[in-house]
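Table S5 (text form). Sequence records supplied for joint modeling of the two-component complex.
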Amino acid sequence: MYRSHTCGELRATHINEEVTLSGWVQKIRNKGFMIWVDIRDRYGVTQLIFDEERTPKEMMEQAAQLGREFVIQVKGKVIERESKNPQLPTGDIEILVSEFTLLNASLTPPFTIENETDGGEELRMKYRYLDIRRNPVKESLMFRHKVGMNVRNYLSQEGFIEVETPYLIKSTPEGARDFVVPSRMNEGQFYALPQSPQTFKQLLMVGGMDKYFQIVKCFRDEDLRADRQPEFTQIDCEMAFVEQEDILNIFEGLTRHLLRDIKGVEIGDFPRMTYADAMKKYGNDKPDIRFGMEFAELNDLVKGKGFNVFDEQELIVGIAVPGAASYTRKQIDALINWVKRPQIGANGLIWAKYNEDGSLKSSVDKFYSEEDLTAWAKETGANPGDLILVMGGNTDTTRTQLSALRMHLATELGLRNANEFAPLWVVDFPLLEWDEETKRFHAMHHPFTSPKPEDKKLLETDPGAVRANAYDLVLNGNEIGGGSIRIHDKATQAKMFDYLGFTPEEAKAQFGFLMNAFEYGAPPHGGLAFGFDRLVAILGGQETIRDFIAFPKNNAGRDVMIDAPSKLDEEQLKELHLQVKL
Amino acid sequence: MYRSHTCGELRATHINEEVTLSGWVQKIRNKGFMIWVDIRDRYGVTQLIFDEERTPKEMMEQAAQLGREFVIQVKGKVIERESKNPQLPTGDIEILVSEFTLLNASLTPPFTIENETDGGEELRMKYRYLDIRRNPVKESLMFRHKVGMNVRNYLSQEGFIEVETPYLIKSTPEGARDFVVPSRMNEGQFYALPQSPQTFKQLLMVGGMDKYFQIVKCFRDEDLRADRQPEFTQIDCEMAFVEQEDILNIFEGLTRHLLRDIKGVEIGDFPRMTYADAMKKYGNDKPDIRFGMEFAELNDLVKGKGFNVFDEQELIVGIAVPGAASYTRKQIDALINWVKRPQIGANGLIWAKYNEDGSLKSSVDKFYSEEDLTAWAKETGANPGDLILVMGGNTDTTRTQLSALRMHLATELGLRNANEFAPLWVVDFPLLEWDEETKRFHAMHHPFTSPKPEDKKLLETDPGAVRANAYDLVLNGNEIGGGSIRIHDKATQAKMFDYLGFTPEEAKAQFGFLMNAFEYGAPPHGGLAFGFDRLVAILGGQETIRDFIAFPKNNAGRDVMIDAPSKLDEEQLKELHLQVKL
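The corresponding structure-token record, covering 1164 residues in total, follows.
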């Protein structure tokens, strides 16, 4: 038996017990006559003591030769510590070692195994097994497990059945790119790895499973943007005999439950907002509503006052920045430069200070009277002490730019508190979205999403205006989930494929099995999927997902630890009937 | 809202309530003046009633036009049934329908949606979404979910952390064949899908995770034997600072827990048996110990009595078949023919009847006296009324043949009761196994398995005799799990790769990251993996795994429902820098 207790377990109540511990050497302090060694495992740290009065000489020498991250086993007596460490759960005691075994030595680790490490990202990834020993990473992985168990138990208690759908499926050119898998037994043919289990979960609904979920890996062979992974995990759900309202209620319940159980946070209001409103009020379909600074459209107030810059624009929109009337010229210039950067691409920023004394002062005083500015203040909800910022231009662009500025300001003003949680449903997404490049409509969610019945007639005349039964769950400005009520009849599904530019032959070749299934009594159904990596990171109070993934890949899709992907030898390629053509 | 209740929910206590149900038409009985419709969902079946006195004429006509598997929604009043059906949980009531909506029609399903269907295997697979509507399949999938939740909750409570390991890893030529995945971003390079997360779980132990588990898909591109799938699910576990005994105890606990919670079965004895004993007593490394018929080696008793057939053989071994002394000559001939079939390949079978009256009669009375036969009876443990069957030949072959006969007889005698559970640890497996084809030793478990310290010295002189710290969990004659204590130092691991015929360069290229990790304080560790598909099937009392997998592949590795794998178009191949060469 390698241990009687873990390194995080012993307390004053254990004093005088004989114990056995195993773990890693965290720290050594050698005073010559006395050596203290901190021994660490997943559960904590315990101090060992060797001293020349009580420890055999040979063991003193062994202890003196220990290095960081050596693996040792010790037996000894739990004794009271002279100088207690209240920071440490085991800080009341130490172990007077009587037996000592070196289980494994260690080379000097390439970075320090501490909460704050000196290792850079790349080094940490190459030696991820050492990085995982660090508390922040280890705890992130344990936190992920806790969230996963919580989700599973909640959904299971709600009557959902976890069903494993296949990983070796069929390639579909729709949407982002599939990873493919050559089949040795079926020469010249390929499987694809799922981008999501979408069609399978719909088939499970046709199969009467009623409530399905799965925490499942999905795959996307896309150029990796920051914080995207080629393999990622989804909480995938689907329900039969439901309307949008039923789904929102169930997953509002899950979100409340997670926040309560995991974070101890009770959510009061759980608002719903249409996509149109979100765009109008926040310039964004995943607004962070932990703070205000809502958009005010000012066209009626600012046009026709002789200020050409505004007169020419499609949309003029402003926000009130709380307490920022005191910003210096330099601070405001910094904001103007920030929005002019190519990443944002705005032409500039008009400002108006609503001073504490009630007076108003703007960068466009030449065109606008104090009365005009008072109207701006009213419209943006500015109070004395606030700074009003106004942008103008094409509607979509201006909203995007002001949304970025709003988030930037919130971060600067400390309004994005990682321990505050403000969930929100965004509903009534457009069904279709125009793609300038291919000059046709694409499915905004995916081609299985149903149009709102009352908008169906617009499909012929104004497809871009058709709203879908589609919804996103937004948490603190992040889209963490999204879904829709699906089409469940063959005719509508065929029509949708037609709108999306599929020929009937293509639709049949790729989704024939689903359309066939719709002919055998498909029930009304819908569902959603949460991005599990993102959800865990946000619940953990982090912006990036990488430390919540045990073995992530880098931005080139490489695992630098195992050095994958790599070349295959000719023999292996031959068996797969493949040739590489660079 | 599509329903107020499910189709399995209503009881006599609901009588007079107005309810809404949705589901599939299971059955229609049309008496003209009265129509009964059974409506089905995941939760059960409820009877609807339409009658000409109480139902509007138009609705009667609609009801009359319903077909099997149509999807309907009805509102109505719960009323007491005239002739109750005690077989059905909802059998006390029926619904007098007042509103009726056809949600979706259905073509006539290609096979009946009943517990016993008229559909053949291939048809059921092609329309798997209809097959899943059948109770046996639906319940198997729900049972799988229940077992999965149980395993997760048990291991989580025992301090195990579920960590997701990557699916896009590195190809290793060792063992069965990898599925590979070309990388678009890394031209000419490939990932591999994991055959198991073996190296990653070991790295998690190096990373201090201490106790890891994962219910995870694994992949093997092998020619499919019966009841194998190219993708399959494992319960994968690993622990640090453990010896074999610790692992056996934990997973004995899991097995007991599952049998108690899932099957209501309390396991008394949980025996351990060495591999050598299992081979000697059952001719098999996964013995079914629900019944006796243990092997008795009879060399000393049968040789030198003038019966040449036995004198020449390496091993003579017998079993006592309970109550089979009454077998007719014809029955015994059938057994002899059974073992002579090419699948078994035995030369024959010697028999001796130990009659109820105590007399003994054999097929070799010419050579063996009643006294000799009495000694056989004693050695095989035969009682009056039993039949002794004896085979001889080369040790390995004879054991295999008699083991097959033992299982055949047990099935014939009804000794393999699916509701009885007899788990067993088989321990001390050989480390290496000689492969006649390649003329070298292979790892019996895998190359990371540690030899027993006391056998290490035999590695140089008699490698085949070295025992490993490896163990299998056997349940009712099926291997459901296996594992080992791993090597955790670089030197031993390098030596093992050497024994297995890897050059140092090959070992480094394929497993360099693991050997490097061993240099940074790798703890002693070990683990095991359960075959989840098999475990669920056995707990479910079934021999085959296919109905416990939602969307299985056929023996050619094809999903006949979605028609995968399939060809890629040229464009897609070009992007992957690949060419198919048939």
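Note: The longest strand of chain B covers residues 18-30.
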